[in-house]
Amino acid sequence: MGPKPFVEIEFSTNKDYTYYVTLFSNKESGPWQKYNEEYNQNVEFEDENEKIAWEKFVNYSENNNDEFFYIQYQEKLQGDDTFVWKYMPPSNFKIVIYILDTDEIIYNDNIYQTYAFQSYYQAEIDFALGTIFNIEKNYNYGKEILALIIRLIITILVELAIALLFKFRGKALVIVSIINFVTQILLNIALYIICYYQGTWIFPLILYYIPLELLVIILEAILYYLLIHKDDYKGSLLLYTIIANVITTILTFIII
C-alpha cells in the first residue's frame, strides 16, 4: 500500500539466454541483507535454477574484493527483458548478472544511483563478450504521465460522487470539477518534482505531501465558498472539502 520507490532496468541483449540479475550494494537495505550462514539456513527457492543463481551470487560476493556485495534479491530474465527491484532497492549499486546458459557472471564495476523516487535505466548485454554497456538513465515520462492522468480521473470522479452525496447539483458540480482538476494538477506537479529529487527515501515525500494537501484543502474551500453562491451549500462546503480530500488521499496512496 502506498507509493513505493523502485529501480527498473530495461535490458537489450544479443542472445535469447536465460539470466539472473541483481544489484550489489555497499550497504544492506531494509529486509535485503548480506548472506550470513547463521541466519540464512532456510532460504526458499522457486526452482533449482534460482538456487544455483543465488549460490553463484553469494560465492562471487564473498570472493570479490569490493565494498559492494550481494543482498539476496534477484530476478530471472530472458532475452530482451526488464528487471525491477520493487521494494527498498539499494541507493548505490553495481549491476551483476549470472548467465544460466553459460554459467558465467558478468560484473559491471560502475556505480549507479537511485536518482529518483522511481529510477529507470536502460542497458545492453553482450553475452559473447561478457559485458554490460550503454547503461543510461531512462526516466519513463510516458508511464508517469499516464499514472497522473489515471489519478486525476479517479480523484475527480470520487470527489464528484461525494459532492452528489452532499447534494451538490448543476453549476456547483461543474465548479467542483474545474477546481479539482486545477488543484490536482498543481499538487501532482509539485509531488513529481519532490519524488524526482528525493531518491528512494519516502519520508520527505510524506512530510511534503501533508502540508501540500492541507494547502489544497484551504484553497479549494476558499474557492468553493467564493464561487458556489447558493446558501444551501455554504454550511457543508468545508466539511465536503475535508472529507473528499481525505478519501482521495487514501485512495491515491493505495493505487500509486
Can you characterise this structure?
- The chain has 256 residues and is α+β, with helices and mostly antiparallel strands.
- It has 2 domains: 6-137, Immunoglobulin-like, CATH 2.60.40; 143-255, no CATH class.
- The protein contains 6 helices and 9 strands.
- It has helices at residues 48-63, 141-165, 171-197, 202-227, 231-234, 237-255, and strands at residues 6-13, 18-25, 75-78, 81-85, 92-99, 104-107, 112-113, 118-126, 131-137.
- The strands form 2 sheets. Strands 2, 3, 5, 6 and 7 form a 5-stranded antiparallel sheet that branches. The protein has a 4-stranded mixed sheet with strand order 4-1-8-9, with no helix packed on it.
- The radius of gyration is 24 Å and the shape is elongated.
Could you list some keywords that capture this structure?
256 residues; five-stranded antiparallel beta sheet; 2 domains; alpha+beta; four-stranded mixed beta sheet; elongated; Immunoglobulin-like
What structural class do the secondary elements suggest?
Answer: alpha+beta
Cα-atom radius of gyration: 24 Å
How far is it from the N-terminal to the C-terminal residue, by CA? 8 Å
Low-confidence stretches: none
CATH topology of the largest domain: Immunoglobulin-like
The total strand number stands at: 9
The tally of domains stands at: 2
Biggest sheet overview: 5 strands, antiparallel
What's the helical proportion of residues?
40-55%
CATH class of the largest domain: Mainly Beta
What are the secondary-structure elements, in order, as H or E? EEHEEEEEEEHHHHH
Shape: elongated
